[in-house]
Amino acid sequence: MRQAGRYLPEYNATRARLGSFMALAQDPDAACEVTLQPVNRFGLDAAILFSDILTVPDAMGLGLSFKPGVGPQFAHPVQSEEAVNSLYVPDPEDKLKYVTEAVRTIRRELDNKIPLIGFSGSPFTLACYMVEGGSSKDFSTIKKMMYARPDLLARILDINARAVTEYLNAQIKAGAQAVQIFDTWGGALADGCFDEFSLKYMRQIIDGLIRENEGEKVPVICFTKGGGMWLEAMAESGCDCVGLDWTANLGKARERTKDAVSLQGNLDPMVLFAGEEAIRREARRVIDSYGMVGAGGHVFNLGHGISQYTDPEAVAILVDEVHSYSRAKHQPTA
Amino acid sequence: MRQAGRYLPEYNATRARLGSFMALAQDPDAACEVTLQPVNRFGLDAAILFSDILTVPDAMGLGLSFKPGVGPQFAHPVQSEEAVNSLYVPDPEDKLKYVTEAVRTIRRELDNKIPLIGFSGSPFTLACYMVEGGSSKDFSTIKKMMYARPDLLARILDINARAVTEYLNAQIKAGAQAVQIFDTWGGALADGCFDEFSLKYMRQIIDGLIRENEGEKVPVICFTKGGGMWLEAMAESGCDCVGLDWTANLGKARERTKDAVSLQGNLDPMVLFAGEEAIRREARRVIDSYGMVGAGGHVFNLGHGISQYTDPEAVAILVDEVHSYSRAKHQPTA
Fold first, then answer.
1. Which residue range forms the structural domain that includes residue B66?
2. Each residue of B282-300: pLDDT tens digit?
3. Distance from CA of B325 to the nearest CA of A (A)
4. Which of A230, A232, A246, B314 is the most exposed place for a label (fewest CB within 10 A)?
5. ipTM for this model
6. Three-state SS across B186-246?
7. Together in a domain, A38 and A166
8. Within a 10 A sphere around the Cβ of B93, how many other Cβ atoms?
9. A218 lies in the same domain as A250
10. Is B236 domain-assigned?
C-alpha cells in the first residue's frame, strides 16, 4: 500500500508546495522526497514508490484530473467503440518518464539500504476508471460493457495489460526491486468474471515482466481487494506474493495456497484508530495468524490503504510492534 | 432483496402520495400496496415485505431520517457508554406495530397464493448505522469502538440481537412465512471479527426464533454481503438458507456447505443493464452454477439490491428466463 500520504504533515507540506497531487506525482524530486518521508520517520523495511495508479491511462491522453471531494476524473472516458479504437500503449520512457526518473532518484537516495517497490493498477482497475470516467459505486457502465460487449472490454484490457507490462518493466529497468499489481476493483466482479476480466490480464502482465535485474530476482506481488475467495487462482498466476485484505485469515490462506507464494497483509487500517494496546494486540494477531515462516513467507502490511485521518504516532507503534514481535518470534533459539 | 423500489413507476407514485420513504414504510396499507406491486407486475414466487432495515433502531428512539443524496441518518448516534446504557429492546407490538400490521394486511391480500418473506437488519449492520450515525465508507467509528472497547460494542450487539429476535418473531406471529437476516456490512469486518461481532449475534437470533407457525416450517435466511469466505460458519449458524452475493460460485458454495442449507442468489444486479441476451445468458449461468437440485435447494435471487436505474422490462425478462429455464431443467423426464 502507499506509505506516503495526507496523514503525514511533512507530506502535506510538500504537496502544498507543489500545488496539486498530479504536480507532486509528476515531479521526480518531489516524488522521491515524499517516498522517503515515511521511510525516514518510521524505519520501514522497504520503500514504496509514490505515484498514482492512474498514470498509465493519463499517458494514453484521457485527461486525468483530481477534483477535491470527488476523486479522479477523466476528461475523455472510454465508452464507445471509437474511443476503444483510439487507445494505444504509451511509451513509458516518453509520457511516463517522470515515473522512471523518480525511481532512479529514489534508488540513488536509498543507496541500497532498503529495497524499492514499484507498482501499477491492474488492467481491470484501470479500465474501471477509464470507462466510468472516475470513481463509481456500482460500476454500472463498465459492467454493462462487460456483459453486453465483452469483446470491447477485452480489447481495452489487452491494451492496458500491454501498457502496464511496459510501464512496470520500465520501472524495473530504472531500479524498482519488486513490483506490485494493484487490483482495487477486481473484487466487485462476479465469480467467473474475475478470472476472465481481471486475473487473465494480470497473468498476461506477469508473463511479460522482467523477473531478474541487477543479478537479483524481482518479485511480483498481486493484490485484489476482496479477492480472498479466488486466492488459489491468484497464487497460480505466476506471481511471487499475493496481497490480502483484512477479511482473509492468513493461516487458512496459506493452507489454500500450499506455501507456493508468500502472503502480504493484512491488518485492518481502522485498528490504527483504536489506541496503542489494540494496535499491538491486533498486529500480533496478524503475525500469529500466519504461523511460523515456511517456504512462502509473510510480508506484514495493512490490508488496504491507510486513512488520511490516521495519527502518525499510531503507525510508529505498529512498526515497533511488528519489528519487535516478529523478530522475537522468528529468532532461532540458541 | 427488496423487490419494490424506485425502479418501478408505480412505487414512485405511491411514495409521492405518502410524501416520504418513512411515511410509506409506516403506513401498513401503503406498505402492502408497494409490496404487491412487483409481485403483480412480474409474477414472482414470493413476496418480500416492504420495510427498512433501520426500523428497529428507530423504535429505540434514535431518530431516523432520510436525507436525499445522503441516505439514512440518526439524530442520536450511539457513541458513548451513556448512550449504550440508555439503549433498550423495543416492544415490537408498540412502536413497530406498523410493520406487523403491514404483514397482516399483505397476508390477507396474498390469500395464500404465494408466501411472504419478512426481514430485519443484522445486529452488526444495525450497529453500524447506530454508531456511525448514518452510512460510512470506512466504518471508522464503529471499528474504533470494536478494537478499543469490544465490551461496549458487545452490549449494543446483544441488545440488537434481542430486539431483532422479538421483531422477527412478531413478524412471524403476524404471518411472515420465512424471515431473512440482512447483514449488509458484516463483509467489512476482519477475519475473526466477523465471527465475534456479526455471526455470533445472528446465531443468537436464530436460536430464539419461532421455527414453526400455522403448522409450517418458517425458514430462516442469512445473508452477509461479501461473506463468501465465511460460508461454512454461516451454514452452521442454524439457518436454513444462506444468501450469497455475485462474487461466490454457487457450485463451490454447495460443495463447501455439503447441501446442509439451501443457497440463495446470486445474479449481479448490473446484468440487468446489459440487454435481453445477456440477462437470459447470465441467469442461466447462475442456475447452471448451482447444478441439479439436491438436498439443499436453490432460491434464485439477485446478489444484492436492485439499482434504482433498472428498466422494469429487464426484470420481466429475468423472471421469464428463470421460470422457463429452471422449470425445463428440473422437470422430471417422462
1. 9-243
2. 999 999 999 988 888 999 9
3. 19
4. A232
5. 0.93
6. HHHCCCCHHHHHHHHHHHHHHHHCCCEECCEECCEEEEECCCHHHHHHHHCCCCCEEECCC
7. yes
8. 14
9. no
10. yes
